[in-house]
Amino acid sequence: xxxxxxxxxxxxxxxxxxxxxxxxxxxxxxxxxxxxxxxxxxxxxxxxxxxxxxxxxxxxxxxxxxxxxxxxxxxxxxxxxxxxxxxxxxxxxxxxxxxxxxxxxxxxxxxxxxxxxxxxxxxxxxxxxxxxxxxxxxxxxxxxxxxxxxxxxxxxxxxxxxxxxxxxxxxxxxxxxxxxxxxxxxxxxxxxxxxxxxxxxxxxxxxxxxxxxxxxxxxxxxxxxxxxxxxxxxxxxxxxxxxxxxxxxxxxxxxxxxxxxxxxxxxxxxxxxxxxxxxxxxxxxxxxxxxxxxxxxxxxxxxxxxxxxxxxxxxxxxxxxxxxxxxxxxxxxxxxxxxxxxxxxxxxxxxxxxxxxxxxxxxxxxxxxxxxxxxxxxxxxxxxxxxxxxxxxxxxxxxxxxxxxxxxxxxx
Amino acid sequence: xxxxxxxxxxxxxxxxxxxxxxxxxxxxxxxxxxxxxxxxxxxxxxxxxxxxxxxxxxxxxxxxxxxxxxxxxxxxxxxxxxxxxxxxxxxxxxxxxxxxxxxxxxxxxxxxxxxxxxxxxxxxxxxxxxxxxxxxxxxxxxxxxxxxxxxxxxxxxxxxxxxxxxxxxxxxxxxxxxxxxxxxxxxx
Lengths: 412, 188
Fold this sequence. Notes:
The complex is a heterodimer of chains A (about 400) and B (about 190). Chain A folds into two domains: about 5-330, no CATH class; about 360-410, no CATH class. Helices cover about 55% and strands about 10% of the residues of chain A. Chain A contains 14 helices and eight strands. Chain A has a four-stranded mixed beta sheet, with helices on both faces. Chain A has a two-stranded antiparallel ribbon with strand order 5-6. Chain A has a two-stranded antiparallel ribbon with strand order 7-8. In chain A, a hairpin with a 2-residue loop joins β3 and β4. Chain A is globular, with a radius of gyration of 26 Å. The relative contact order of chain A is 0.11. Chain B has about 190 residues and is mainly α. Chain B has a single domain (about 1-180), classed as de novo design (two linked rop proteins) (Up-down Bundle). Chain B has helices at about 1-60, 65-80, 85-110, 110-115, 120-155, 155-165, 175-180. The chains are: A alpha+beta (about 400), B mainly alpha (about 190). At the A-B interface, α3 of A face α1 and α5 of B.
C-alpha cells in the first residue's frame, strides 16, 4: 500500500505540469511583448526557473530551517520528542532517522522539510511541544513523517519555486513595462499594419502578467490541500490512533498566536496554516490548508478504523463529495485496520525546570497583587484583576464563559 | 521483413525489461519484510538492555518488593536466552517479560518518591517508548508482509513470483495472551 499511495501523485504531477506550462506560456508572451522575441522570453523564464529549482533542491531545507530560527536537537535534549520521531520512523518504515529541530516560539506549529526521505528534517515549535501529550505529539509527528514518506516536501518545494518564478517574472515585467522597456510596442507602431497584432500580443502579455500569478497560486493551493488530507490519512494509519492527531489539531485550532518567523511561501509546509485568522470562511480556494475543523471531523468519524480506506470513507461523509482523497487503486486489497486504544501512559510533560520555576514565580507575584486565577477548560489561565466585578468571565481564547469562584468575589 | 524483425526484437526487449523490473520489485519487497523483522529484534534487545538500569534504580528504594524485582530479572534472562530459539519460544518469553514489567510498574504506584525520581522518569519514558517501538516495528513488519503478499498474489507480478519461487510471508500474530495486552507502563 506504500507504493499504491503514490499513484495519487499522477494527479499532482498533472497539476505541476500545468503550472510549468503556465510559466512557459507566460515567458513566451512576455518575451514577445518586451524583447520582440518569444524564444528569448522562454529562455529567460527557463533559466530563472532552473536556477531557483536547483537552489531549492540542494539548499531548500537549510534555508527554511535557518529562516525559521530552528535549532537542531539530539536525543538527550528532549528524549520524548526524539522518541516520538523514532517511533514514527519505525512505523512508517523510513530508512533514516530524520533530523529534529525545535523552533523557540510560543506559537503552535510543526513542519517537515528535506528533498528526499534520506535527507529529511522535522521541526516543531517549543510552544506546541509543551502543549501536547504523548499521543498528540505522536499524531503530529506522524503527520509530518507522512509528508516525508509521501515525498510531499519535494513536490511542494518544486511547486513553490514554480510559483515564485511566475511571481518574480510578473513583477519584473510590470516594472519594465512601466519604465519604458516596451520595444515590442515601438516596433509595432513603426511597422504600421502590424499594429493590431502587436497590440493583441501586449494585451495578452498584460493579461497573463495579472492572471498567471493568481492561477499559479490556485493550482499550488489545490495541490497543497490534497497533500494535507493524505498526510492526515497516513498519519492515522501509522499511529493506528486518529484521535491523537485530532485532539492535537484541536489544540492548534484553539491557539491564536501567529508564528513570528512564518512566511507566506512556506505556509504549506506547516501542519496548520500559520496565517489563519479567526473565523475565516472555511474551504476557500486561497487556503493552503483544509479547514482544521473539517480535518478533525474526518479523523473523528473514522469509526474505530485506522486504514486509508476508513479515512477515505470518513472524508466522503464529512465533505459530502463523491470523490474521496485517494484513488480506488490505493484502497484495493487492503484489509481493515483497527485503531488502537489510547495510550494509558500519561507521563507529565517533562518541562525544563527553568520554565516551570519561572512560571511559579510569576504566579506567585500575580497572587500577591490580588489577581485571581481561573483555569479555563481550553487550558488557558485567566488572571482576574482585583477590581473585576461580575460573576463570570469569558475566556478570550476559546470563548467559554467561566464562573468565578465565590472566594474571588468576596475578596474583590 | 526487416521491420517485422525489429518489431519482434523491440517487443522482446520491452518484455524483458518489464520482467526485470517486476522481479526487482519483488526482491525489494521481500528484503523489506526481512529488514522489518530484524527491526523487531533490535527493539526487543533494547528492552533487555534497559531492564538492568530499571532494576538498579528501583532497588535503592527501601522495602521495594523483592519478588517483583526478581521476577523481572528472571523474565529478562529467560527472554535473552530465548533469542534465536524460534519465533514461538521467543514470543512466549517476551510476553512473560512484558507481564513482569507491567507488574513492577504497577507496584511503583505506591512509591511516590520513586515516581518523582528523575532517573526513574527518564527510564519510564524510555520504557514506554520502547514498548511503542516494539509494537510499531511489528505493525510495520505486518504492513510490509501485506504489501509483499499482495505483489505475489496479484497480476502481473504473481506470474514472475511463480516462476522464480517467491513464497508468501508470514504475518506476526500475537499468541501469548499477555502480549496482546499492551503493558501498562502507567502509574499516575
